[in-house]
Amino acid sequence: MTRPVIFTLDLEDHRPDDTAEIRYPDRCRVALDFLDERRVTGTFFVVGEVAEAQPDLVREVADRGHELALHGWTHTHLTELEPRALAEQAVRGRALLEDLAGRSVTGFRAPTFSLVPSTVWATEVLVEQGFTYSSSVLAARNPLFGFPGAPRTPFLWPSGLAEFPAPLAGLGPFTVPYLGGTYLRLLPSPVVAVARRVFPPGPTPWTYLHPYDLDPDEPYWRVPDAGALSPLLWVGRRHMLGKLDRLLAQGAGVPLGEHLDDARRGGVFHPEAR
Q1: Do 185 and 213 contact (CB within 8 A), yes or no?
Q2: Is the separation of the CB atoms in 181 and 209 below 8 Å?
Q3: Which DSSP helix (H) or strand (E) runs through 273?
Q4: Which end of the chain is more exposed for a tag (fewer CB within 10 A), N or C?
């Protein structure tokens, strides 16, 4: 049986510098309208600085029924933070999102899936700051951040934090998080459909995107993190909503925060024992 896909969006700023046009609020509202039309609710992982700069937008996301979760105070990889800095930023970001949403915020997604073997300490910090789940692991090798050997279906960290890894498809070095972002934009829909059958994504399949994934008219600029692959961040944007429509056609799952039991059933992963 094919499980309904859960919608998630990383609400972050995407500009070469502070002088460039701010485009993400409009694109976020395009996503919100798309979800409203299909009666889909999902999880929005919000960068704290974005919530501070655009409180009305973030409040609107919550008012339309979506779950708010934290995507860091800044879009800074965990590998660049110390535990104390993460704790301070997590407290600040969670408090702001809870103020805007009027309800508890318990989810976290590390920027660029930067929860890797060297940053497992973050799972302890997040629990200490009141978070109950993370969606921060890409359980395969990747040019940016990956955690080969981690479970590919929901599980618990020793701290008790639930983890929802990115759904993967492929073999060996060709394993990719095919249900979201650049991979979803690049892969033809029939390939995605076959991948879902051949590599079942488990009990909580989720798609992910960013406001820029829905912005075909954004002027090109070289994204430092992407390097030579930067042009790929612009490919397929015009067709992204159509692909999402097909993904969600079988019905949409509830927000990630309502799936903690799936992680508990997955058991505890001890990274030092792999």
Answers
A1: yes
A2: yes
A3: none
A4: N
Strands 155-156 and 162-163: antiparallel
Summarised one tens digit per residue, pLDDT across range 156-194 is: 999 999 999 999 999 887 899 999 999 999 999 999 999
> Which residue range forms the structural domain that includes residue 11?
6-262
At 272, the amino acid letter reads: E
Number of domains in the chain: 1
CA–CA gap between residue 32 and residue 215 (Å, rounded): 14
Tell me if 145 sits within 8 A of 113, measured CB to CB. Answer: yes
Residue 20 φ then ψ, to 5°: -75, 155
C-alpha distance from residue 25 to each of 9, 30, 92 (Å): 13, 9, 22
CA torsion through residues 257, 212, 111, 50, sign: negative
Residue 117 lies in a domain: yes
Does any domain span residue 272? no
Which CATH number covers residue 93? 3.20.20.370
Ranges of residues in the chain whose predicted pLDDT is under 70: 1, 251-252, 273-274
Query: Does 273 fall in a domain?
Result: no
Give the whole-angstrom CA distance, residue 235 versus residue 209: 14
